[in-house]
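Reminder: ligand-aware prediction takes two inputs, not one.
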Amino acid sequence: MLSGITPGQIPGTPSPLRLAAPRSVPASRLERVRAAGAAFIRGTTQGWNRRELATWLVDQYAPCVTPPFHMETANLPPVMDTPLDEGFINRLILDARDRVLQLLAELVVPWEATPRARLAVACGAVAPERDERGAIAYYPVRLMRMRLAQRVSALFLADYLNRPTEYRWLMLCSECGELAFSAELAHGSWCEASPEEWIALTPAEALYAAAGSSG
Ligand SMILES: [Zn+2]
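Here is what comes back for the chain with zinc ion:
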């Protein structure tokens, strides 16, 4: 937690509290990966129902995932072969949100994040792709049998592999659910939460460790 830490207290590190430009439409596929993950956290902070989850899966998740490298076998029955009631969907969403927030708290600590991200690549949930300029970027993979929590986690794990240092100062607005990467605080226009209402997902000891390693 950031309690007791104010800008300028840690020498050689960026201020934990900076105001960012308002959110805009993501231009690149890389940006859409992060935006889709952030939209899940933001949406589920307000509470989502089946329709809102379905809209997110179609409009934000699907456009940024990549198909699996190997053809998946279809020996198992479809996951959703019976209609699911609204209560089940709500529990599914809340469970996914809890798991993803736990993951984010791990991603801010490099020695916990690196093995998690490597495991995601080894399992095929995240895959590297080479762009037209030859640069490698990581994208979430759309596997058939993934649970909702795994799908959202893959977004953040891919994004972490692309921009690990931006996860060092990760904060969450408790009011609107906006995530602040590199501690660049930006709410939705309706949110009037004060800086005190941002929750640091970065534990204080990790901040001090980063400050020490950066000299
Ligand atoms: Zn807010």
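The longest strand covers residues 126-130. The helical segments are 29-46, 50-61, 86-107, 110-122, 148-162, 204-213. We will return to this case in the review session.
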